[in-house]
Amino acid sequence: MAIENLNSLHYTAQEKTIVANALATIEGSLAAKFKNLTPEERTKYGSVNEQNKLVINKVKDFRTNQPALSSPDIDWVEFQNDVDSREFLQSIIIRLESLADSLKNNKILHDYDCYQAALTDYDFSKYKVGTKAAGFQVKVNELAQFFKKTTPVNENKPNDPTVNKKE
Q: How far apart are CA 90 and CA 96, in angstroms?
């Protein structure tokens, strides 16, 4: 009986190379501007929450629409450069997060497929041990370490997560 395969779309060597090169290009393009923050700096500078971002946007709107009301103590060119950079970075972050979610979903399906195949192979190997086929006992012994012995389900705790139902 063939096992179910949830994702049979695989990446060619050429596709892998293209993606690796594209990521290297992106990393190379951005790396010079990256800053590593300590946990303390992340706490200190990360205090611009969503509410405070609304303040930034409102000041930007006033600056754009009524520049005469803007403080002369601000370097407005630098402010606009910061606004442009944060908007650029936010748009990239959103795209990368979406891409990361899609990649994780894809990987989950491949992980599941691999695990199901591994379980089927383990069951086959246990069967072959029962037929006294040569070489399978070592394989079963090596794989058995990944499976805890099951304990009968306690009728008072039928959903006990500590009970491993798969052997």
A: 10
The one-letter amino acid at 6:
L
Diameter of the chain measured on Cα atoms: 90
Tell me how far apart the alpha carbons of residues 81 and 74 are, in angstroms, rounded to a whole number: 13
- In the 8-state DSSP scheme, what is residue 38? P
Cα–Cα distance between 151 and 135 in angstroms, integer? 29
Q: What is the DSSP letter of 136?
A: H
Token pair of 79 as six digits: 């402010």
Nearest Cα residue to 7 out of 104, 123, 95, 120: 104
Give the tens place of pLDDT for each residue, 22-81: 999 999 999 999 999 999 999 888 878 888 999 999 999 999 999 999 999 999 999 999
